[in-house]
Specification:
The chain is mainly beta. The chain has one helix spanning about 1-25; strands at about 25-35, 45-50, 55-60, 65-70, 75-80, 85-90, 95-100, 105-110, 115-120, 130, 135-140, 145-150, 155-160, 170, 180-185, 190-195, 200-205, 210-215, 220-230, 230-235, 240-245, 250-260, 265-270, 270-280, 285-290, 300, 305-310, 320-325.
């Protein structure tokens, strides 16, 4: 009888330890939303907080997929696109902007009817999209070196900024006029003054394929993801100097900084999400690598919902889907 009691106690302790470990996990999978008949690579995403909708650039499928997050299902697939890479939603004007890699067009849709309202043509390879709400301007990275500017209200082109290579991820300051732009072919970060519409500085990157990027304005830190070798390089945005580097999952395509928790989330195509804890501006600690799926390298962190949305492509027996992770306190 005593032996049975001991076995039960050990079993309960093991369950308790397991539950405690699960509670301590910084990201917990809470939902999976299937993307039926979506093939090929999946690129970037955007959120409609009010309408609880997620917009997904399904590059290989030539569609934008629209998900109802409340219902946990796809509600629309917008066809006829040309390798959509970036997508942006602007609630103020109820518009969706889609950047097409093939042909370079940025297509502007009414976000209720999904009717095409405008087409802004750039030279080629339209990619990432960012929005400046104060100036009401949409920025689109494109071609062999440019940031296109679109007036969000009218949907008309409002100028461009020349760069010396194709821009990948770029981030806009909210407390200043700067844009930080990854230029992988030049192995550098270009700093743009959006008031002057011109580059004002460049910072060399000590690794190759610097694609993803995240910005911590509170501590004046810029996180630049490189693939060769796989690491995150930490820049001081005041001086432009490198203050450290962090381990990263391989083939990363998105990085997000969670300001309220002081965390960095890195989605890598090797099949992992890396989570790093910021201890102070110059010190970081790797928390965990969460196993996901091969090719799942794009994601979107939404701080208002404490959710990280991870795009998983169809590969072999793995279905195309979006995995939803909840960030723990």
């Amino acid at each position: 009888m005593q032996r049975l009691r001991n076995i039960l106690v050990i079993g309960l302790m093991a369950v308790g330890v397991k539950a405690q470990a699960q509670d301590a996990t910084p990201l917990r999978l809470v939902q999976t939303i299937l993307l039926p008949n979506v093939e090929g690579r999946i690129d970037h995403m955007a959120i409609d907080l009010t309408g609880q909708r997620l917009f997904i650039a399904a590059l290989g499928n030539n569609t934008v997929e629209v998900l109802d997050l409340g219902a946990g299902k796809r509600i629309r697939s917008i066809p006829g696109l040309h390798e959509p890479q970036g997508v942006g939603f602007i609630r103020e004007f109820n518009k969706m902007f889609v950047a097409n890699g093939k042909g370079g067009a940025c297509e502007v849709f009414d976000a209720s009817s999904f009717k095409l309202a405008k087409i802004v043509k750039f030279s080629d390879d339209a990619d990432n999209i960012r929005y400046d709400p104060k100036a009401r301007r949409v920025y689109v990275g494109y071609g062999n070196g440019g940031l296109g500017i679109i007036d969000a209200a009218s949907g008309k082109e409002a100028g461009s900024i020349n760069l010396d290579g194709h821009p990948e991820s770029f981030q806009l300051e909210t407390t200043g006029p700067r844009i930080f732009v990854n230029i992988p072919t030049a192995r550098k970060v270009t700093v743009v003054d959006r008031g002057k519409a011109a580059a004002i500085a460049s910072w060399p990157v000590s690794a190759r394929s610097n694609f993803p990027m995240a910005l911590d304005e509170t501590h004046h830190r810029l996180f630049v993801g490189a693939r060769q070798p796989a690491k995150i390089i930490v820049f001081d945005t005041e001086s432009g100097k490198v203050v450290g580097d962090l381990a990263s999952p391989r083939d990363a395509d998105d990085i997000f900084y969670d300001d309220s928790r002081g965390r960095i989330y890195i989605s890598g195509g090797e099949g992992f999400i890396g989570v790093v804890q910021q201890q102070d501006a110059d010190h970081y600690r790797a928390l965990i690598k969460i196993s996901t799926a091969p090719g799942a390298r794009t994601s979107l962190f939404v701080p208002e919902l404490s959710r990280l949305y991870l795009a998983v492509p169809h590969r072999g027996g793995q279905s195309a889907e979006v995995r939803v992770f909840k960030a723990k306190p």
